[in-house]
Specification:
alpha+beta, 19 strands
C-alpha cells in the first residue's frame, strides 16, 4: 500500500512540475510524460505483478508438456481455469439454434475443394453441357469457387449413386443482381439410371426431384418438387428464405430414406417426409437457368450413414464425428456444428452418470507439434461449448488431443483427411 501511495504521489508531483515547464516546448513535455509513464508502470508491476503473462506461461506449459511434474499440475489447472473463463468466448462464437438439427453422415466419401484445379479452368472431375470456371471471391480468401454459366447442367463424376442415408453440404454464393423471375442454383436428384446432360433446359422436372436455392439480396426463396418414377409431379411448393449477401452460405441436405431436409445456414427450409421413393436409386446433378447474376459453389462434401450417437456412446462406449467443424488452423467452432453438439448434449443429459473424454484428431497437414497442440485446443473448445451452450456439467468431461497419430483413413486423399479430422467421445 505504501508503494502505491508513493507511486501516485510521484505521479502528482511530476505532473505539477510539467505544468511549470510549458515554455520549454511540447517536445520536452512529451518525453517527460513518456518517462513518467514508464516509471509508473514499473512501480505498479512491482505491486501487482504480471499475472496475465504468468497464466499464459502455465497454459503453454500445459500444452507443450514441458516443465517439472508440479509445474505441469499447476499449468493444467491454469489452463482449465483459463478455458472456462477466457477461451469459452472463442468456443461459443455461434449462436445456439435449438431448431438446427442437421447431423453429418458417419463416413465422408467425397470432398471437392477444387485443390487439384487451377483458377480459370473447369474442374477436371466434373462434367457439363455448358461451361464454367474456377474463380476466387474477395471475401473468402484463397478458397476456390466454381462459377456456373448462365444456363447449364453440371454433375460431379465422382458421385455415382446416392444411398438411402446421406448428407450433402456445400457453400453457395451469389451476386447481388439476381432476378426474382429466374431460377437460382438447382439441386436435382435424378434416377441414377437416367442422369445425363440432355434433359429439358427449361426445367420441366420430368423424372427429377429436387430443390432450387434462389437468393435475392438479403432474402430470396426456395422451391422444392417431388416426382414419381414415371415423371408425374407429386409435390411442388415455394417458400421465402433469408440469405447472407457478400459471403458464403452453407447449404446442408440430409436424406433419411424417404425424408429430405434442406437447410440454408442454420435455418431448416424444407422437411419433406415423402421426397424419395422407396427402393429407388438416385444420383446428383446441379443446374442453372439465369439471365442476371451469377451463382457459385465451393467445399462440397458427401457423407454416408445415419449417425447413431446414443447407441455408439452409451452401448459401444465410443462415438466419433467429423461433423464438428472448426475454422482453418483454429479452435473456433463453426456454426454448422450445432446439430451434432446438441445431439451429444442430449445423450449426456439423458444419462447423467456417464462421463466422457473428448479427444481431438487432425490430419497430417502441418507439423506434428502444431497438430498436437491444435487437437488439444479443439477438444477443449468442444468441452467448453457443451458446458456453456448446452449446460452439460464440465466435471463430467475431460479433454485431450492426439494430433494426427491415430488416423482412420488415408491422409493422401482429400476425403481421407476429412475423415481423420474428427472429434471422439470416449465413455469413462
Amino acid at each position: 500500500m505504501k508503494i502505491i501511495m508513493i507511486a501516485f504521489m510521484f505521479f502528482g508531483c511530476t505532473n505539477a512540475a510539467l505544468a511549470q515547464f510549458g515554455g520549454l516546448g511540447q517536445k520536452f513535455k512529451q518525453k517527460a510524460k513518456e518517462a513518467l509513464d514508464r516509471q509508473t508502470d514499473k512501480t505498479m508491476d512491482k505491486v501487482v505483478g504480471k499475472g496475465e503473462n504468468k497464466v499464459d506461461e502455465k497454459v503453454n506449459e500445459a500444452i507443450d508438456g514441458t516443465g517439472k511434474s508440479e509445474k505441469k499440475k499447476s499449468a493444467n489447472a491454469a489452463k482449465e481455469n483459463a478455458s472456462l473463463n477466457d477461451e469459452k468466448v472463442e468456443a461459443a462464437v455461434f449462436s445456439v439454434n435449438s431448431k438446427f438439427d442437421f447431423i453429418a453422415g458417419d463416413k465422408v466419401v467425397a470432398v471437392e475443394d477444387f485443390s487439384q484445379d487451377a483458377i480459370g479452368d473447369f474442374p477436371a472431375k466434373w462434367n457439363t453441357n455448358a461451361s464454367g470456371e474456377l474463380v476466387s471471391l474477395g471475401f473468402t480468401g484463397n478458397k476456390k469457387w466454381l462459377q456456373f454459366s448462365k444456363n447449364g447442367i453440371y454433375y460431379p463424376e465422382f458421385i455415382k449413386e446416392l444411398p438411402e442415408n446421406f448428407t450433402l453440404t456445400f457453400d453457395m454464393a451469389a451476386t447481388n443482381d439476381m432476378s426474382n423471375s429466374q431460377s437460382g442454383l438447382r439441386v436435382f436428384f435424378p434416377l441414377a439410371t437416367s442422369r445425363n446432360l440432355k434433359f429439358d433446359q427449361h426445367f420441366s422436372y420430368l423424372a427429377n426431384s429436387g430443390v432450387d436455392i434462389h437468393p435475392s439480396g438479403d432474402s430470396g426463396s426456395s422451391a422444392a418438387w417431388v416426382v414419381s418414377k414415371e415423371g408425374e409431379k407429386l409435390l411442388e411448393n415455394e417458400i421465402e428464405m433469408s440469405w447472407n449477401k457478400n459471403q458464403g452460405n452453407r447449404i446442408s441436405i440430409w436424406r433419411q430414406k424417404s425424408r429430405l431436409r434442406v437447410y440454408v445456414n442454420q435455418t431448416k427450409i424444407w422437411d419433406l417426409p415423402r421426397a424419395f421413393l422407396p427402393e429407388t436409386t438416385y444420383s446428383l446433378l446441379f443446374a442453372t437457368n439465369l439471365f442476371e447474376g451469377n451463382v457459385y459453389l465451393a467445399d462440397l462434401k458427401l457423407a454416408y450413414g445415419l449417425p447413431d450417437t446414443r447407441n455408439k456412446l452409451i452401448t459401444e462406449g465410443k462415438f466419433s464425428t467429423n461433423g464438428i467443424l472448426f475454422d482453418v488452423n483454429s479452435d473456433v467452432i463453426k456454426a454448422e456444428s450445432a446439430g451434432v453438439l446438441k445431439e451429444i448434449a442430449a445423450v449426456l443429459k439423458d444419462n447423467p452418470t456417464v462421463k466422457v473424454k473428448i479427444i481431438g484428431h487432425t490430419d497430417t497437414d502441418g507439423s506434428a507439434d502444431a497438430n498436437l497442440k491444435l487437437s488439444k485446443r479443439r477438444a477443449l473448445a468442444v468441452k467448453v461449448s457443451l458446458s456453456e451452450n448446452y449446460e452439460v456439467d464440465a466435471s463430467r468431461m475431460q479433454s485431450d488431443g492426439v494430433g494426427a497419430t491415430k488416423p482412420v483413413d488415408n491422409n493422401q486423399t482429400t476425403q481421407g483427411k476429412a475423415n481423420n479430422r474428427r472429434v471422439e467421445f470416449v465413455k469413462m
